[in-house]
Design brief:
By secondary structure, the protein is of the alpha/beta class. The protein has one domain: Rossmann fold, CATH 3.40.50. Helices cover about 20% and strands about 25% of the residues. The protein has helices spanning about 35-45, 95-110, 135-140, 205-215, 230-240, 250-260; strands at about 5-10, 10-15, 30-35, 50-55, 110-120, 125, 130, 145-150, 165-175, 190, 220-225, 240-245, 275-280. Helix 1 (about 35-45) packs parallel to helix 2, helix 4 (about 205-215) packs across helix 5 (about 230-240) and helix 5 packs parallel to helix 6. The longest helix is centred in the middle third of the chain and has 18 residues, at about 95-110. The radius of gyration is 18 Å and the shape is globular. It binds S-adenosylmethionine. S-adenosylmethionine (SAM) binds near residues 36, 37, 85, 200 and 246. S-adenosylmethionine (SAM) binds near residues 228 and 246.
């Protein structure tokens, strides 16, 4: 059953079917690795993943303004990310950050099947008065499209420029990649409110992950920056096999909890189709 409508140039078009929240989840395999994403991706087989859906740390604390840089908060005083992540400061020198993200993308590309694609969510920002779009990270990778994720508001009030209200999702695709039937009708501007009921400092909304996965239509799905497990929950709801990697054990605990609840299990129980591995991060 189709249950999404999108407005497209005045015409209402139908989008492909998506799982309803109340639908009983299927039992496709799920795997969570707790550890460093590059180290773990290196151990996974080449060309084994159909779709990557991910949002890396944005390196927000390495910033020229708004108080994120020195940790006092400034205009960001209410932003959860002022303290960084549990196990990641989000404050690398810019060149190091770009090199790290390019290495992550190279590993994701190695893992992708020839008909696979990466949905790489990032945020553009103004640094020293100039737009910092993220072409230094994605340059040389086969970016096919930029999807605009239109959020319901922003938090960066600056008299020098308009309030930023969107993030981007780079669609980085291998040559044989094709969208699922009718997914093209979703268009390239996705209006999705940000997540509000999640204790993780920077989750993306479930609907964003669902759209990415549904627009491909099959797995396995990989999220190397799993955070609170949003991509895993979306894949579970669609009955699609998934793999998640997350460095912070406390965020992995959040992901486990969401999956446990989705599968209607009692406290401490985990579904049989879920496997967990702890890979210590080398010091
Ligand atoms: C933007 S958040 C992802 C949030 C996720 N999309 C969600 O909805 O919850 C980025 C995540 O990357 C994790 N992270 C940082 N460095 C990592 C690394 N080297 N390997 C794996 N995960 C890492 C952080 O702990 C954080 O949870």
């Amino acid at each position: 059953m189709n249950n999404w409508n999108f407005s497209n140039g005045g015409r209402v078009v139908r989008a492909p079917a998506r799982a309803k929240k109340e639908e009983k989840p299927h039992k496709a395999k799920g795997v969570i690795y707790t550890g460093d994403c590059i180290e773990i991706m290196k151990t996974l087989p080449a060309e084994s993943i159909r779709v990557v859906v991910t949002s890396p740390p944005y390196n927000l604390k390495n910033s020229t303004g708004n108080g994120m840089k020195d940790g006092r908060g400034g205009k960001w005083a209410n932003a959860a990310l002022i303290n960084g992540y549990d196990d990641h400061e989000d404050n690398l020198p810019h060149d190091e950050y770009v090199a790290w993200q390019r290495e992550c993308l190279s590993q994701m590309m190695r893992l992708l099947r020839p008909d696979g694609a990466i949905f790489y969510n990032h945020k553009w920002r103004v640094q020293g008065g100039l737009l910092q779009e993220r072409s230094d990270i994605v340059e040389g990778f086969p970016v096919r499209q930029i999807i605009i994720w239109q959020r319901s508001g922003g938090i960066n009030f600056n008299a020098g420029y308009f309030l930023p209200t969107y993030e981007v999702v780079y669609l980085i695709a291998k040559p044989d990649f094709k969208l699922a039937p009718k997914a093209n009708a979703m268009g390239d501007v996705w209006n999705i409110p940000q997540e509000r009921n999640n204790a993780h400092p920077a989750p993306f909304p479930l609907e964003l992950a669902q759209r990415c996965i549904e627009s491909v239509g099959s797995g396995p799905v990989l999220d190397p920056f799993l955070g609170s497990g949003t991509t895993a929950v979306a894949a579970e709801m669609l009955g699609i096999e998934w793999i998640g990697i997350e460095k912070s054990p406390s965020y992995v605990a959040m992901a486990n909890e969401r999956i446990r609840k989705l599968n209607h299990l009692s406290d401490g129980q985990m579904p049989e189709h879920l496997q967990s591995f702890l890979i210590p991060v080398p010091s």
